[in-house]
Amino acid sequence: MSQTSIPPEADEQRSSSAISLQNEALVWSLAPTEAYQPAPIDITVCRAVQLELEPLRWNNYELLPASMKLTNTGETVILSARWDSEQCPSLEGGPLEGRYLFSQLHFHWGLSALDGSEHTIDGYRLPLELHVIHFAERFGDQDTAQASPGGVLCLVYFFNLKSNPNRFVEPVVEALERILLPESYTKLEPFPLIDLFHAFTDEYFLYWGCTRNGPQVTPLLWLLSRTQEPLDFRQLKQFNRLLDRRMRPRCSLQPSDTARPSKGRHLFHVNPRTPMSVSTLRIEPPEKFAQTRWLVDRQPIDWSSPDACRQYVRLVREELAKKKQPPVEEDEVQCLEDRCMITTRAVQAGTGLER
């Protein structure tokens, strides 16, 4: 009688899947208690527990909306969008139970470039913070979902200052001039939401915490990207010109607002590429590669592969060709290859691939 053998690869996948399911159950077991602890918090990698989960699946974020609206609420700036089809952007996988639908996104900023973000990173604030809000499809709408732990999901992106403007966020920045007054809004020329941020499947932080708006308490599942987005000083200053309901320049963050320490609750570092990370946020590449970095971040590259450098340069060339931009100069390509080789060797050394 013959026996069917299971390929080692299939056995590894089954084992990895089982671990992911166990870890997902662990995350949700914390919701009844930790989802009602105050947010935001201080994020620091040395306090984070490493956790393996299945990759997040990003659906329809590249689709062009039928319409987009930008609103100055007097408290923040909200970008909302509508799609003609039922295929609105959504998230699945990772720690999520079911599908989460995009609801809106909004920004948080401060009086200066040193106090803009709601969360702190190793005790310090960044210039701007973006929240991308989703709600669980099983609840039907966000109002119903926000009453239950896990009903609402918040993706967090941090922005840092660069010498060059971020052309992807420029449509929003230009529109701020038209909504200086509170309770005003303007229509935007539609663009894919993914232009404003990047899709991530690994290297993110996860925790439970709630926000309060008067008597209303909203428990949230927070996912924070380690990779920062750029903007320049001029773009940041446009947010500072917006007026609140008292007709004063509005900063989304009040001086009295403080991020709570992460100690006392679970903070997870999900799917870390570098298990021995000492930096809470991923280190940005040189400024001259900022644009190509943004394009390539959403491409699958196995940095533990000896062929990683070639993959990286090839993807850069392909993305630039698609956008009909000038080709990468030969000296830049050489710099990219050198940088990739250093990164690859470091990863291989950390994973034991290099002898």
From TrEMBL:
Coiled coil: none annotated. The keyword Protease does not apply. It comes from the Eukaryota. The keyword Transmembrane applies. Residues 15-271 form the Alpha-carbonic anhydrase domain. Gene3D superfamilies: Alpha carbonic anhydrase. It is a single-pass type I membrane protein. One of its GO terms (cellular component) is membrane. It is found in: Membrane. CDD domains: alpha_CARP_receptor_like. One of its GO terms (molecular function) is zinc ion binding. SUPFAM superfamilies: Carbonic anhydrase (SSF51069). Keywords: Glycoprotein, Membrane, Repeat, Transmembrane, Transmembrane helix. Belongs to the alpha-carbonic anhydrase family. This is Alpha-carbonic anhydrase domain-containing protein. It comes from Anopheles coluzzii (African malaria mosquito). The lineage of its organism: Eukaryota, Metazoa, Ecdysozoa, Arthropoda, Hexapoda.
